[in-house]
Amino acid sequence: MSLPPTYVEGFHDKDAVLRMPYRTLGKTGLQVSVLSLGASSLGSVFRKTDESECVALVKEALQKGINYIDVAPFYGQTKAETVLGKALEGIPRQAYYLATKVCRYGATPADMFDFSHERTLQSIDESLARLKVDYVDVLQVHDMEFASSLDIVIKESLPAVEKIKAAGKCRFIGITGYPLDNFRSILERSTVQIDTILTYCRYSMNDSTALGLINFLEERKIGIINASPISMGLLSNRGPPEWHPATPEIKDACKKAAQYCEEKSVDISKLAMHYSLSSPSFHTTLVGTASLGNLRRNLATVYETLTDEEKQLSTEVVEKFFKPLSCPHWEGVQPEEHWAALGGRPQ
Fold this sequence. Notes:
The structure is a single chain. The protein contains 13 helices and 10 strands. The protein has helices at 14-19, 51-63, 79-88, 109-112, 117-131, 150-166, 181-189, 214-219, 248-263, 268-277, 292-303, 308-322, 333-341, and strands at 22-24, 31-33, 35-38, 68-70, 97-102, 136-141, 170-177, 196-200, 223-227, 284-288. Helices cover 41% and strands 14% of the residues. With 347 residues, the chain is α/β, with parallel strands linked by helices. The mean pLDDT is 96.
């Protein structure tokens, strides 16, 4: 195996980097680790976090071969970017690819989203200052489904990101969101070249519907980033946070599936990680953590193979609990709640 372009002699653990599989992120040409670091957890979005542990975690993740980090100003309302900026100080810029986002910001519905051209141009400068870098590798429009219309994404957000790219502040342009049809719509309509998409909770044991988009994306050489293999906590023994938008049917199926695995002395999260990492159609899978222990377990998942019994259990769980679901996703739930809180979507 060869070393990726992000390898830096004297910084990386060479043996670990040689063990890490890398895939090409579509037409960007970036050689990205199959496991990447979702930095939302650094913003304390799931629990209180220890900043010194977060800083150590980022360094260890990079040294062990992870080379793609995804963050956003929205995570912890700038905290995640700020902590990540501290963590990246002193680390060679060549050693990682960095992605952030625009258009999602505040904690309340009134100040959460701004897809305007002007705010997007302003946002990247704020992010670069917090991250303490001169450029990001990928700049993404965050959660397009919350725009009053996809027209504003096409006419304002994306042209602004294109201007940012022309200024050398980002290298590639991406879009993110939960509803899958929006990716198709934007990619077909946009005059701005889009290089990557980030989808979350759509290629996991309980919902693999993102597979239906793969041929469309591959034809356009789009880099495909999969996030949240444990479906934001659904596929865990602890279960999802209270705010999780999944339907009661999905939550119940996931809870029963986790209990079924636990009865067989298997952690469903382990099966879920292997399930998402195993598909070569997704160039990298983002997993967020602020725990060094969890990071090390996630890295172990990349190198270990499931036993025959675990493979059989994984297949059985999908067939028994998830294939019978009447609907595996929760598209529309969060945007509807958002616009209801604001008194209705603009006409």
